[in-house]
UniProtKB/TrEMBL annotation:
Superkingdom as given in the UniProt entry: Eukaryota
Name of protein: HTH_Tnp_Tc3_2 domain-containing protein
């Protein structure tokens, strides 16, 4: 396991866990449904994206208050990133 971990540039623990899963289940794929459950519904996700599209200057706190659910601002940023919406900063060119 140490040799394989060195070749794959990962820890021995990762190699051991993959090997145990392979011997137990015959696969090394990630299980479906793993990870945290979503705190927002699809409808709330669409509303977050819609608000950002309608008013590009709206803040994450304003979106959170309008949606009406208890989520952290990072969740809003993640939903906007999933919709390929990125923050826009003004471009400052250097004077020539």
């Amino acid at each position: 396991m140490r040799r394989v971990a060195g070749q794959e540039d990962s820890s021995e623990c990762v190699v051991r866990n993959c090997w145990e899963q392979w011997t137990r289940e015959g696969t090394h794929a990630w299980k479906t449904g793993s990870g945290a459950t979503r705190k927002t519904t699809r409808r709330e996700d669409r509303r977050i994206v819609w608000q950002a599209l309608v008013d590009p200057t709206v803040t994450r706190s304003t979106i959170r208050a309008d949606v009406g659910i208890a989520i952290v601002p990072q969740t809003i940023s993640r939903h906007l990133a999933e919709a390929n919406l990125k923050s826009k900063r003004p471009f400052h060119a250097l004077p020539l």
